[in-house]
Write a structure and sequence with these properties.
It is a single chain. This protein has 207 residues and is mainly alpha-helical. 54% of the residues lie in helices and 0% in strands.
């Protein structure tokens, strides 16, 4: 193989880019051959999907790998299996690098607030609504109203629509929200459960 071809192939490989399941560059190595000759013996995305789909309750799994090893690509394959499988699940992927300051210690609201926000957006899309237009009565607005009542100083800061971004990029604001939540943790977690249960009912109503 000449140098020009090797250089072309080298630069075509972008380990930082996750691939969609239908991307022609996404080769399902686990599906090659019969069950006894597959590289890892099983199709891992299917095994993960079955673990989630067959469980009666919540499932928590730690899925690790080196940078560029294909974690996000495999998770996207898992999402499609869950969406198109017999359970027909609504999947939501929350990218921590986009919504959390992962270079600093992480606290409860740093995770829960963007998680519920992304779930709500997915449910709104499922209902045929524009997540941006429908957010005027969404979770972030209700959370902001609660925070503003609890801490008057916080009410002077930008409103609910930038709440996730502010939590990620402004350490002082993030600490203020953490302090409010820590002082009312039971109430915050109870509301979190109510919100998720409501979103689950709405998703179930859409099949």
């Amino acid at each position: 193989m000449d140098l020009a071809r090797r250089k072309q192939l080298y630069n075509a490989c972008k380990p930082e880019e996750s691939l969609a399941p239908d991307d022609p560059r996404n080769v399902e190595l686990d599906s090659f051959g019969d069950a006894n000759s597959r590289p890892r013996g099983v199709i891992w995305a299917e095994r993960l999907a079955n673990t989630i789909a067959f469980a009666d309750g919540p499932v928590f799994m730690l899925f690790t790998g080196l940078p560029g090893s294909g974690k996000t690509t495999e998770l996207r394959r898992l999402m499609r299996l869950l969406e198109q499988g017999p359970t027909h699940m609504l999947t939501v992927r929350v990218d921590a690098e986009q919504v959390v300051d992962i270079s600093n210690p992480i606290d409860i609201p740093d995770l829960i607030v963007p998680m519920i926000h992304e779930v709500e957006r997915a449910v709104l899309e499922l209902e045929g609504k524009d997540p941006d237009e429908a957010s005027s009565e969404g979770y972030l607005v209700r959370l902001w109203q609660w925070i503003s009542k609890t801490d008057v100083e916080l009410s002077k800061l930008p409103g609910p629509y930038s709440l996730v971004a502010e939590l990620r990029t402004r350490p002082s604001f993030r600490q203020q929200v953490r302090d409010v939540v820590a002082s009312h943790l039971s109430e915050f977690l109870a509301d979190t459960r109510v919100q998720l249960e409501s979103l689950q009912r709405r998703a179930l109503a859409r099949g």
